[in-house]
Structures are given as structure tokens and as C-alpha cells.
Amino acid sequence: MSYKKLDEFPKDFFWGASTSAYQVEGAWNEDGKGPSVIDMAPVVEGTTDFKVTSDHYHHYKEDVKLFADLGLKAYRFSIAWTRIFPKGNGEINMKGIEFYHNLINEIIAHGIVPIVTMYHFDLPYALAEKGGWSNRATADAFVNYSKTLFEHYGDRVKYWLTINEQNMMILHGDAIGTAASGDTENPLQDLYQQNHHMLLAQAKTMVLCHEMLPTAKIGPAPNISAVYPASSKPEDVLAASNCSALRNWLYLDMAVYGRYNNIAWSYLKERNALPNIAEGDMAIMAKANPDFIAFNYYNTATVAEAGESDFKNSTGDQQITIGEKGMFKGTSNPNLVVNEFGWEIDPVGFRNTFREIYQRYALPLIVTENGLGAFDKVEADGAINDDYRINYLAQHIEQIQLAISDGVDVFGYCPWSAIDLVSTHQGCSKRYGFIHVNREEFDLKELKRSKKKSFYWYQALINEHSGIAVAS
Ligand code: BGP
Quick one: which H or E segment has residue 189? Predict the structure, then answer.
């Protein structure tokens, strides 16, 4: 549908940007922080580890000042569970509490709204050693951790995200570095048992948030994308429906409606992989209600009918759809171009995704990640002319406005990433930020910050939408 005139972005729209703790903070073992699964995972050859990253831990004041200069209305970041509880549970590390006190105060002092993810891939290693999410006790540890966050920061943080990309951790845990060894006799059952425990932890946390912080809002933060059939062949359409159930709706149906998606459930039942559900679990799932849905969007998936052969994740990449025996097979989409890393670029798919989510759940939506990873080049005069990033973001923002005109309630956009950081498994040379950090994979240099061309572009865009006159 096209419109003669598009609806405006709301005046109080959260023009934001995103990061996550383990990708940006560094200081991996400072001030009492315990190791996370990411710290203990093998480093991908040829890329940096996560020990220093962008050293935001020591540069946070300078960084927040830059975010304010960028014009951010909101900043979405995560708290490292292992700074608060070095062992995941037990004794609180007051130095960790203090760091986020300072960070949150700094953000608010600069007029930016903090949006906090409680858990972004970095499960405490001590919990992983006790079975990680396969162990129901991890769900209890998460709830205790979230209670601690509500107690310490609930007076200032009004927007909470539970678990970042739970669906990607389940579907692509190997690539991200979060996969647990698990039960080798029935690995699929074990995987979906982990999933059940995360869903339970999320539900309990949402209930707790509403009890403890009546004015705060909380929601899930999966990676959601529209799934296209490779052709109009009915079997391909069915495959797209299978893929969407396993990739998207399993997670959101539980978060919003408190029930297992029927297609996902049938898939697990057929494979003898149903999770054990303890008495009372489903009552908690039903009681938990998110106030909004946050989602990350990078691309769409296109799938065809799958035979009975197995699929292996040969690309080692979390954003590429591979396939699932008897369910669907990932294919490339001939209508789309790809970025330098083989990720398809689909701005219109963004609008499709907004529509699908909103029609299904009718909750306010916020985008917590979207962006372009690229090898940026620093010119002799220090400039970084990342026009490709500007184009990507501009095309996606245009589609948000179309989605808003379609009647979708969108209240924020936080592209990935506010500042350069380390990619999940492709090092720091794959850059996403508006702010450049001058380090290389194995040479930390001075970690100096500088503004890319996209910084000035986004700044002008935010000012324009907020009615702020820009000096020319
Ligand atoms: C998402 C993660 C982010 C981020 C992003 C880009 O899956 O939530 O943490 O890393 O993808 O991916 P990558 O870093 O692999 O390029």
C-alpha cells in the first residue's frame, strides 16, 4: 500500500542506538567481574577476544557524552550478569552495582532514556558449569538477578528487556558462542528444555517487574524476521510457516499469550524432544504479560520445502537460515542484494516484519537492533565516509515510517551499534558504529573515538524529527 502522505514519527519517539556489555565494555575480569560463557569460549581464529573490546568500562563518560552529542533520546545497553553476581548467584559484587549506577546516572544526566537488557548472551560461566540453562536452577538465578537489578536501578530505569535473542541462542548457539554441551543422548530435547527454562525465567521476571515496579515497562527481545516462501508452491508456503513457527512465534506466542506455538510443539513432539514442564509453569507463563515487544531485525529468511536430509550450519553465522529436516530449507532470495558478509538486505522486509508482529500481538514495538556491518576505511584526514551505512539505515527508517502509516504502533528505533564494538564471532574489523574506535584485531592502539559520516547524518535526522533547528 502506498500513501499520499506518510504519518509522522511520534514526537516522543525513542531515536536511539544499541550496544551489549560483553561486546563493548572490556574490563573482562576487573573489579570483581566473574567469567561468562563468552569469556571462556574459544576465540575465532584471526579475530580478537572480548577482553578489552572498546573499553567502554573505562571510557563510559566520554562515550555517553558522544551519545548525547549524537542526539540519542534512548540508549539500549546490557548489564553484565557476571559484574553483579560473579558466580551467577550468591554474593553481590558491589563494584559491579556501582559501575551501572554511575553509567545509568550519566545517561540520565545527559537527557537520554536508559533501556536495559538484563541478559545478552553472557551467561555466568559458574552457572554453565552446573548445567547452564539445562538446569532449572539457572532460571531461579536469573529471577534473583533481575530482582537485584530492579532493587538497585528500578527507581531510574523504566524500560527493561529480558533476554536478547533467545531464539538465536537456541537456533545458532554454536555461532554465537552460547551453546551448552548438554545432554548428548537427546540433544534436541535438552536444547528445548533450556528454551523452556529461559521462557520460564522471562515470565517470572515480567511478573516480578510489574509487582516491584508498577510504572516500569518490560518486554522480550528476540530477533524476528518475516519468512518468505521460495515460490508460490504450496509446499514452500508450508515450509515458510514451519520456519516462522520455529524461528519467531515459538518465542513470542509464549511471551505474549503464555502458550506453546502449536507447530513448534508438534515439531518437538514428533522428534521426542518435548520439554518437561513442571507443575505451575504454564500458570506463570499465562500470568506474565509484556508491555511491549522489542525485536532485532537484520534481514529476512526465504525457505523452500525440505526433504528428510539433515542440514548443517556450514556458514557458522547466526543470521543465515540453514534448514531443519522435514520442515524447511533456507534458500537465497534472488530479489535481494547481500552485504559484505553475505547477509541479505531487505528494507521492505522490515515493514513486512512490523506488520506481521503487530497483527499477531497488537503490542507497542521497539526495534532494539538493526544495522550494517562493514569494513570501514579511515581516510588520510581521519574521515570515515560510511555512505553504505547511511543508505542502509535511511532505507530502513523509511520503512518504519511506512509501518507507522500502516497503523503499527512503533515507539523506538535503536540501531546497532552506538559505537564500534566486537562482533559476535567476526571480530572488531566488522564495524557497525556511528562512532569509530581506532583499534584493530590484535593492536589496541589508543582506542580513540571519532565521529563517522553516519554520526552527523543520524544527528541531523534526529534533530529534524525532534523539531530542533540545525545550524548549517
Ligand atoms: C545480533 C546480536 C548482537 C550483534 C548483532 C550483529 O545477533 O544480538 O549482539 O552482534 O547480531 O551480529 P554480528 O556481530 O555477528 O555481526
Answer: helix 187-212
Q: Is 424 in the pocket of ligand 1 (CB under 6 A)?
A: yes
Residues forming beta bridges with residue 338, ordered by sequence position: 344
Query: Which of the 8 DSSP states describes residue 245?
Result: I
> Which residues touch 246 (CB under 8 Å, ≥6 apart)?
171, 263, 264, 267, 324, 327
pLDDT single digits (tens) 348-370: 999 999 999 999 999 999 999 99
pTM score of the predicted model: 0.97
Q: What angle do CA 115, 221, 367 make, to 5 degrees?
A: 70
Query: Measured from the CB, is residue 439 less than 6 Å from ligand 1?
Result: no
Please state, for a pLDDT cut of 90, what percent of the chain lies above it.
89
Looking from the CA of residue 424, the nearest atom of ligand 1 is 14
Q: Looking at ligand 1, which residue's alpha carbon is closest to its atom 15?
A: 424
Distance CA 208, CA 213 (A): 8
Tell which CATH architecture fits domain 14-225+291-298+342-465: Alpha-Beta Barrel (3.20)
pLDDT tens digits for range 422-460: 999 899 999 999 999 999 999 999 999 999 999 999 999
Cα dist from 460 to 84, 184, 373, 450, 466, whole Å: 37, 53, 22, 17, 10
CA–CA dist 91, 8 (Å, integer): 49
Distance CA 205, CA 201 (A): 6
78 CB under 6 A from ligand 1?
no
Q: Are 243 and 250 in contact (CB under 8 A)?
A: no
Task: Render pLDDT for 116-158 as a digit per residue (tens, 0 to 9).
Answer: 999 999 999 999 999 999 999 999 999 999 999 999 999 999 9
The angle at the Cα of 118, spanning 112 to 123, to the nearest 5 degrees, equals 140
Task: Match 532494539 to its residue by C-alpha cell.
Answer: 368
Confidence category of residue 472, pLDDT binned at 50, 70, 90: very low
Q: Give residue limits of the domains in the chain.
A: 14-225+291-298+342-465
